[in-house]
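Dear H.,

Thanks for agreeing to be a second pair of eyes. The structure we're designing against is below in token form, covering all 344 positions.
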């Protein structure tokens, strides 16, 4: 379903890679927890699955497709099969819960008859069948996250990515969100969840992948949040965020050769924004800024990349059709004749 073959991603020349020599695969129907300190590469991994950023080196496969071979104009179609849930919900504040879910269907041209059937089904699935007319500010944090999950899942994506979906919720509410994601997984959707929620990981006992400094240092089939492995940051065996990672080469069990030595080349910028299964909001509106203090790898992207993202997002599928381009995009236009006096 998702495979990384020797993938390295460096955002800016001279900086250490956000993801380095990544070789990992997530099978269809799996529920996987991504754990690790902030800056360990979890968000970059998800952004590459969405083809929001391209690897500097290596190949990413999603649903059997080599993402490097997918042109820009086909990316929105790819993302319709990938749902995305965020820590800060990212609901449209001027729309009701019903309309937020409806919007995800409307932007892909779903017939009204189908919309009227699917949206109530989603509200019922997430336990909000009586709150479809509520505005986001009238819902609790847990209810807002349920609406966000319904919006991400309404198109029945084969992959659901969740970036800290319980990070802003109390333990009891977080448990309900986790149960909802487990139910979606049981319906056949592959769920990859990046989290710092120790209780969630320990409770579920699913596959746990820990990342340190952009590398996978642990991959356990039925793991817990902490580990006895000496290469773990979250278990306290390495300094947080691997500030002294040069002193800790990941030689245990052959997980890596050394931290240093990877070429720091800037990859070409693809220039599109994460749409995800949160298809509606992410394709058509700019997502709000991440919560204060939440350090993500995208903070490394310079303003020029961000501007190109905004510019590229103005294009639609039709804009990239074969008929949209003239064989001579800059035809010469003869200048009008000028008299000698005008030239002077």
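And this is the sequence the design step returned. I haven't edited it by hand at all.
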């Amino acid at each position: 379903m998702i495979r990384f073959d020797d993938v390295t991603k460096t955002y800016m020349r001279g900086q250490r890679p956000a993801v380095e020599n990544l070789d990992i695969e997530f099978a269809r129907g799996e529920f996987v927890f991504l754990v690790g300190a902030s800056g360990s590469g979890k968000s970059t991994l998800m952004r590459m699955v969405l083809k929001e950023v391209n690897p500097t080196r290596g190949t990413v496969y999603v649903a059997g497709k080599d993402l490097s071979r997918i042109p820009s104009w086909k990316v929105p179609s790819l993302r319709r099969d990938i749902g995305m849930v965020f820590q800060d919900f990212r609901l449209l504040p001027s729309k009701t819960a019903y309309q937020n879910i409806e919007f995800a269907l409307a932007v892909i041209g779903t017939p009204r008859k189908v919309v009227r059937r699917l949206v109530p089904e989603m509200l019922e699935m997430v336990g909000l069948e009586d709150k479809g007319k509520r505005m986001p500010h009238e819902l609790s944090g847990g209810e807002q996250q349920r609406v966000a999950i319904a919006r991400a899942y309404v198109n029945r994506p084969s992959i659901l990515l969740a970036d800290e979906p319980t990070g802003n919720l109390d333990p009891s509410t977080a448990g309900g969100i986790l149960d909802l994601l487990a139910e979606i997984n049981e319906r056949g959707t592959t769920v990859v969840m990046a989290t710092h929620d120790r209780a969630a990981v320990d409770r579920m006992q699913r596959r746990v992948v820990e990342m340190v400094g952009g590398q996978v240092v642990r991959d356990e089939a039925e793991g817990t949040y902490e580990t006895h492995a000496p290469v773990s940051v979250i278990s306290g065996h390495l300094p947080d965020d691997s500030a002294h990672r040069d002193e800790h080469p990941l030689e245990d069990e052959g997980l890596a050769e050394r931290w240093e030595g990877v070429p720091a080349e800037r990859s070409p910028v693809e220039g599109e924004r994460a749409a995800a299964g949160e298809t509606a909001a992410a394709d058509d509106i700019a997502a709000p800024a991440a919560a204060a203090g939440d350090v993500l790898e995208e903070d490394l992207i310079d303003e020029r990349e961000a501007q190109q993202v905004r510019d590229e997002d103005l294009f639609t599928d039709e804009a990239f059709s074969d008929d949209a381009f003239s064989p001579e995009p800059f035809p010469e236009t003869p200048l009008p004749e000028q008299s000698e006096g005008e030239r002077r």
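Two observations from my side: The chain is about 25% helix and 15% strand. The longest strand covers residues 2-9.

Warmly,
E.
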